[in-house]
Design goal:
Order of helices and strands: HHHHHHHHHH
Shape: globular
Oligomer: single chain
Radius of gyration: 23 Å
Number of helices: 10
Structural class: mainly alpha
Number of domains: 1
Length: 257
C-alpha cells in the first residue's frame, strides 16, 4: 500500500484537524484519555509483567481512540466504549505489533549496553529515580556513542510504529509489512512530520507552563492529530479528472425536421 507524499504545511493542518475533532466532544475526549492514562499507569505499576503488558496492549488501545475519531466524522457520538473498541478490530495483529515494539525496545537497550552504555542501561531498566546526580553523570560518562546509536534506533522504531496499527487494523496488512509501510511513509514525508513534531514540542512546553493543565487538551489532540495524519496520507481521495471529450472532425448536420 502506497501513501501520499505531502508538503511541510500539512503538519500544521494535522494539528488543526485534530483540534477540530477534539472540539466535537471535548469533555468525553478528556475522560477517555484520562481513563486510558490511569489504566496504563496502573498496569505499568504491576511488578515484572506490568510494563511489557502495557506495551503489548498499546496499539489496541490506540485503535480504540482512532475508531472514536472515525465515529465523529461519520456524525456519530463518541462513547466510552470506544476505549475498548480496538479489541474487536484485528486484535491479534495489534497485539503482535505491540510485541514487536517490545522486542525492539529490548534490542535497542542491548545494543546500548554493548556499546558503552551498560551503567546507563542498568539505571534505565531499574525504573527507580536517581537521587544522586553524580551517579547519573558517572553512568553517562563514555556513553555518548551508545546514546547516539540508541536514539537513532529508537527513532526508526518510532516511525515504523507510527501508522502501523491503523494499517493492520483497517487495511488487513500483516504486522511486519505494516511497520515497513509506516517507516517508508514517514521517511518520504519527513518534512511535514518534522513540522508537526516541532509545533507539538512548542505546545508541550506551553502546556507544561500552565501548571500542567494544558496537557488536559494537548493529550487528546495528540491522538486526534495522529488520526488526521493517517487519514491525510492513506485515505485522502485523489482529485477525479474530468473525462476528455474528443472533438469530432465531421461537420455538424442540422437536425431533420
Amino acid at each position: 500500500m502506497e501513501a501520499r507524499k505531502v508538503t511541510a504545511d500539512h503538519g500544521w493542518q494535522w494539528i488543526k484537524q485534530g483540534f477540530a475533532i477534539f472540539l466535537q466532544s471535548p469533555i468525553l475526549w478528556v475522560a477517555l484519555v484520562a481513563i486510558g492514562l490511569l489504566a496504563t499507569v496502573g498496569l505499568s505499576s504491576v511488578p515484572v509483567i506490568g510494563d511489557p503488558l502495557a506495551s503489548l496492549l498499546f496499539p489496541t488501545i490506540l485503535i480504540g481512540y482512532v475508531m472514536g475519531c472515525q465515529a465523529l466524522e461519520r456524525g456519530e457520538e463518541l462513547e466510552l466504549a470506544h476505549l475498548f473498541a480496538g479489541f474487536k478490530q484485528n486484535a491479534p495483529a495489534l497485539i503482535t505489533l505491540g510485541g514487536i515494539n517490545l522486542v525492539g525496545q529490548f534490542f535497542i537497550l542491548g545494543v546500548m549496553k554493548v556499546t558503552g552504555g551498560a551503567a546507563l542501561v542498568s539505571i534505565m531498566m531499574s525504573g527507580q529515580p536517581v537521587d544522586d546526580p553524580a551517579v547519573l553523570t558517572q553512568a553517562m560518562d563514555g556513553a555518548g556513542f551508545a546514546l547516539l546509536l540508541g536514539g537513532a534506533l529508537s527513532a526508526v522504531l518510532l516511525l515504523a510504529g507510527q501508522f502501523a496499527p491503523m494499517l493492520a487494523a483497517f487495511h488487513g496488512i500483516a504486522p511486519i509489512e505494516a511497520m515497513r509501510t509506516s517507516l517508508r511513509t514517514c521517511l518520504s514525508n519527513i518534512a511535514p512530520l518534522s513540522a508537526y513534531g516541532a509545533m507539538m514540542l512548542l505546545f508541550a512546553i506551553a502546556a507544561s507552563m500552565l501548571a500542567m493543565l494544558g496537557w488536559i487538551v494537548l493529550l487528546p489532540v495528540m491522538l486526534t492529530s495522529i488520526y488526521a495524519a493517517y487519514r491525510d496520507l492513506f485515505q485522502a481521495v485523489p482529485e477525479v479528472a474530468l473525462p476528455v471529450v474528443e472533438e469530432s472532425n465531421e461537420p455538424d448536420v442540422p437536425p431533420q425536421v
